[in-house]
Design goal:
Length: 234
Amino acid sequence: MSLLAEERKGFSPVGALAGARQALALVPVAMAFGIVYGMLARQAGLTTAEAGLMSSLVFAGGSQLVAIQMWTTPLPVISIILTTLVINLRHLLMGAALYPWLSQLPRWERYVSAFFMVDESWALAVRARARGEQDAAFLMGSGMVLFVTWVSATLVGQVVGAIVADPAHWGLDFVSTAVFVALLVAMRQGRANLLPWLTAAAVAIAVWHFVPGKWYILLGGLTGSLVGAWQDGN
């Protein structure tokens, strides 16, 4: 454990700043991802205020993109709610992974940290904790950088959407995939996590093929987590 991590425990501005610095490397990709969402939201008929409000309150890129793709008239409210709920159920697994880190914090600090927990900030926090970081404000700091980036990019995307009619024509629809691939590469531990990854991928592909909806996200992640827990216990 580093001396810096040893000095920094609990929930402090120093820890938040450390997380913010780590998240800066993800800003360009998060910006591109947010711009794509803003463009698609404009095409779906959302105003700049509506798109910005969704990004500020929901702050979940994957589920927002899915919701926009389902945005038709009349609006299928129940279908959108259920679909995005299934997609975001993975946050239960993500939160459980960080519970030992956050469980000793006061309630408001846990809730604020949970709001800023997205895939990218979670991945950075898991890596930081594995390195010996003990200041749980790291998660909030990294998440806040990504939050500001995401909301700003949404607004930029609304403007760009008036110029670029089809994001897929420019390959911008691949941005979200690129983000998750980069996170997986950063979190690799050689052969140690090969079995959970392969199991999660196999289950996700099978469920995607045979089960309608977005259940493959939750079931793939849950299976990989269970295999990883079993592997660590043996």
